[in-house]
């Protein structure tokens, strides 16, 4: 059980790091592929999906960490 949980945590952490790295700080995904990010705009399309996915991955990582602490006792 603990090994499966550890593998699941590693996979979630890699997905979390990847989704965070896709979000260029202050510019969004638009400038990563050549678009300008000089002004504030709302998140749309792929940028919103990546943002939401990073929140979900962070939540899953916290939940699996808490479960891991409870199981290891």
Structure summarized in a few sentences:
By secondary structure, the protein is mainly alpha-helical.
Report the structural category.
mainly alpha
Number of helices: 3
Shape: elongated
Give unreliable regions as ranges. Answer: none
Helix content: 55-70%
Largest sheet: none
- Through-space gap between termini: 13 Å
What is the radius of gyration? 16 Å
Write the layout of secondary structure elements.
Layout: H1 2-21, H2 29-32, H3 46-72
Q: What does the model show?
A:
The chain is 70% helix and 0% strand. It has helices spanning 2-21, 29-32, 46-72. Helix 1 (2-21) packs antiparallel against helix 3 (46-72). It is elongated and about 50 Å long.
Describe this protein with a few key phrases.
mainly alpha; 73 residues; elongated
